[in-house]
Amino acid sequence: MIKRLIGKLIGQKPAKASNPLRISVEEHDIDIRHISPCATRIISTLNQSGHEAYVVGGAVRDLLMGYTPKDFDVVTDATPEQVRRVFRNSRIIGRRFRLVHVYCGGDLVEVSTFRAPHETSNTQDPKGRVLRDNTFGSINEDAIRRDFTVNALFYDMRTEEVLDFCGGYEDTRQSVLRIIGAPAQRYREDPVLSLIHI
Fold first, then answer.
1. Among 72, 76, 110, 121, which is disulfide-ready with 59 (CB 3.0 to 4.6 Å)?
2. What is this structure's pTM?
3. Annotated catalytic residue within 62, 73, 77, 164
């Protein structure tokens, strides 16, 4: 009963992603100059090194909704070790999922590698929380691993397009918050959300 109520209140989007909807700059109206210089430099450098790299998540959501993002996250196909080799002023952090903190003067940008579906047998505790999540994947797989559709939006600085795999663009237009996949499972997997009893 509670699971159904959460699904109705928050909304649920099936956990599948194929080819993204590509939203052009004429439609989404994000001004590339509003992206932090640090994130811009990181993405450009990764692209020049032969890697895919995008602004992802809350920053894209906020820019689409007319807010100033508090921070910018970057996602890439480069592994943490590859990112670390490209940026001298960086460090790998995390156990559950390894990330790279890249420093540009006083600014910090978190760089993550595309995630793939995790193996449940040996990466979850008895309550379903994900303990280890260092299985890397594709941009499509990464999109469906994110929590909410509005956080599964990718901004491609090369084309100035927003890539939408899960319907998040329309959800920003409608001010709707939808979880990707089954809410109960997602709450169990996340160490912060798992504190909510359902």
1. 72
2. 0.80
3. 73
pLDDT tens-digit series, residues 135-174 = 899 999 999 989 899 999 999 999 999 999 999 999 999 9
Q: Considering just the CA atoms, what is the radius of gyration of the chain in Å? A: 17
Q: Which of 62, 142, 147, 171 is catalytic?
A: 147
Domains with residue ranges and CATH for the chain:
17-195 (3.30.460.10)
Q: Is 147 a catalytic residue?
A: yes
What pLDDT, on a 0 to 100 scale, did the predictor assign at position 43?
Answer: 98
DSSP secondary structure string, 54-93?
A: EEETHHHHHHHTTPPPS--EEEESS-HHHHHHH-SSEEEE
Q: Which of 71, 107, 156, 190 is catalytic?
A: 71
Active-site residue, 73 included: yes
Q: How many Cβ atoms are within 10 Å of 56's Cβ, its own excluded?
A: 26
Rounded Cα–Cα distance for residues 62 and 168 (Å): 12
Rounded Cα gap, residues 89 and 101, in angstroms: 9
Residue 51: pLDDT band (50, 70, 90) is very high
pLDDT above 70: residue 14: no
Tokens 């194929």 belong to residue: 18
Active site residue 71: yes
Q: Which residues of 136-160 are buried (b: 16+ CB within 10 A; e: fewer)?
A: bbebbbbbbbbbbbbbbbbbbbeee
